[in-house]
Amino acid sequence: MKRPGRAGLGSLAALWLLVLGSLLGLWTGLQREQEAEQERRFPAGTAGRRQPQEQRGWGRGGTGDSAPDSRSAGQGESRGAQKTFRALLTLPAAGDRGEPLEGQKQPAEPREGPGQSSQPEPRPGQNLEPGSREPPAREAPADPASAVQGGIFWSQALEQQVPPGFDPEQAASWLETARAARVASLERGGCGRSSNRLARLSDGSRACVRYGINPEQIQGEALSYQLAELLGIRQRLPPMALALVEARGRQWGQVRDELRGSHWAEGAVVSLTQWVDNLTDVVAPAPWRSEAGSGRRLQPLAAGELGGLTQSQLVELVQWTDLILFDYLTANFDRLVSNLFSLQWDPRVMHRATSNLHRAPNGGLVFIDNEAGLVHGYRLLSMWDKYNEPLLRSVCIFREATAQRVRELHRLQNAASELLRLYRTHEPLSGRLGFLSEQQAQLLQGRIDFVHKHILHCKAMATSL
Questions:
Q1: Most C-beta atoms within 10 A of its C-beta, which of 45, 98, 196, 399?
Q2: Left if phi > 0, otherwise alpha if psi is -120 to 50, otherwise beta: which for 278?
Q3: What pTM did the predictor assign?
């Protein structure tokens, strides 16, 4: 056989080199395309996943719709259970929403989940300290003895460190402006359910417009706002006013086209809540997070349990004790209770953001979306009090001013009548939604009495130590 010459061998080698070079070039090109796609989807520093935004405004009113691309992976684990929970918020009540706007059909009920938020889950270590935006520096433990007075009350020195909430005069000014302003535009997103809208008012300010699936949800929002005033904690709630939807009216005339796409009923009452910028998520403090996550019964937070906590943590606990008392009185199941409920599907839910609770830039807590309170919550007491009552019993330290308000309402047995007085005085559209039924009024007074009894129990326990 004739062997190939040197020229033939050189040609063959060159051909192989050409093939190998082409394959290498093709592989390199594919690799670069994949890297470019990865960089496009996950910019530098995201460690292979989309990082949550740390700041955003209050908009969702809390029952929260979350865009698919804004949810973290961990929050999708119990989505089926979340739909089951959210359905409880939309149980039909007596009465209807009135006639739909001309040319509209009534929408299907939105599907949402408990603990869902328009805000993504915080990164590990984020917001575990009040007001933090990055993992906080280590803080020395505070002296527990200086945090409590009389065995069951937060000290005045500690309360003075609580960041201020919404100034009453500024809130009153905003409410007056919002009621008189025209709605210049309505935008989807940022305010919770798909039926809600973010409104830009004629003065340039913004407000979340909440449209309740049932009228009782807007009623519960309005009454909860007034009850917070009765308890002396309204500074923790954004200013909220009612508005009447009239497509041809002065307030809504500029957004008539947007109203046609909103599926709102003509003549419905909606709520306008002040938009607040730069709010961050809040994770439940350790006293509740650790107990709930372990499957054990929640233990009372008493003066003897404060050892090792920092000053910042104590300042936040002052606000949390008001929140838990408030949620018990209103039977609001759409905040921390929703997280406790979800433990059966998601064992780490208490390490995630708490529903309808945010932190302002100054570190103060903001209680948003209280539509599940009072009317709606009272209708579902048998289902949710097994969570709300243990939460109340887990608190044995209170703001003295809040305890005094409860004591006075118990002594005079006039919680419902005082609430009605505030409601009629401060809300011009109160007559459109009506008030609590007689049975609901009795439930409110009964819960006031129960909180008072619990405070006395905590005082007796502290005295016996």
A1: 196
A2: left
A3: 0.74
